[in-house]
Design goal:
CATH topology of the largest domain: Jelly Rolls
Shape: globular
CATH class of the largest domain: Mainly Beta
Largest sheet: 7 strands, antiparallel
Structural class: alpha+beta
Strand content: 25-35%
């Protein structure tokens, strides 16, 4: 019997480069085929550079990337591919895309095991996105997952802040969670803040964890999970 093994990621990425190159050289009448090839690239690679090569090609084809890859939970925003600095390390049970997970352009689904949620066990979240240069932004959004059966709870509150030097931050807003921690089933809640366009080099998001499962929970007192997928900056 053939012993199937997952292909090496470097080999996959090499194939994606070929896909993008072919798509970029297809004739006008093959536009639909080119779009399909570029979208397939998103599901094959985790390399941010390759993803945005494909996004750029989609834009050149006059296609809004959001429309094409939102079905695959991809999102295009200013922070994509930027450095993520975490105060508290993520837990390896929910690593998502590793160090760049919160700025890799991939949103999570209601399936906690879809590979796109980064988890913190009993810890708060404090993430700083380094934009590398002063960029005018006007909106910051984050998604969190709740699934109390799996000890995953929404944060108590979320704070948004920006900075020019990465040290002195101006708090833009703090939002309390308004969803009951007893609400069953899987749900995703977006926390967002809109503001007048402001230049920022650093964006910080703090999320206060519930800490431990509440007294009424079947696993009361055990450390609770906090799961986030992406810090979206526009």
């Amino acid at each position: 019997m053939w012993d199937y093994k997952e292909p090496d990621q470097e080999l996959v990425d090499a194939a994606v480069r070929v896909f993008i190159a072919i798509a970029n050289n297809l004739a006008e009448e093959d536009k639909d085929r080119a779009i399909k090839m570029l979208n397939n690239s998103f599901s094959l690679t985790k390399d941010i550079t390759l993803r945005y090569m494909a996004i750029s090609s989609l834009k050149d084809l006059g296609t809004a990337p959001g429309k094409e890859f939102e079905e695959n939970n991809f999102v295009d925003h200013i922070g994509c591919g930027k450095e993520v600095i975490l105060t508290y390390p993520y837990n390896n049970s929910y690593p998502a895309g590793g160090n760049l997970a919160l700025a890799d352009g991939i949103k999570g689904t209601k399936d906690r095991n879809d590979g796109n949620w980064q988890g913190f066990l009993g810890d708060d979240l404090e993430a700083i996105i380094a934009l590398n240069e002063a960029i005018a932004i006007e909106k910051i959004s984050v998604n969190f997952l709740q699934n109390i059966g799996a000890m995953i709870f929404l944060p108590v509150s979320v704070e948004f802040a920006i900075s020019e030097d990465g040290k002195n931050f101006k708090i833009l807003a703090t939002h309390d969670n308004d969803v009951s921690p007893k609400q069953e089933g899987a749900l995703i809640k977006e926390f967002t803040t809109d503001f007048n366009k402001t230049n920022a080099r650093y964006v910080r998001v703090k999320a206060k964890s519930i800490g431990v499962c509440p007294a009424w929970h079947s696993r009361a007192g055990r450390k609770a999970w906090l799961l986030i997928d992406e810090v979206m900056i526009n």
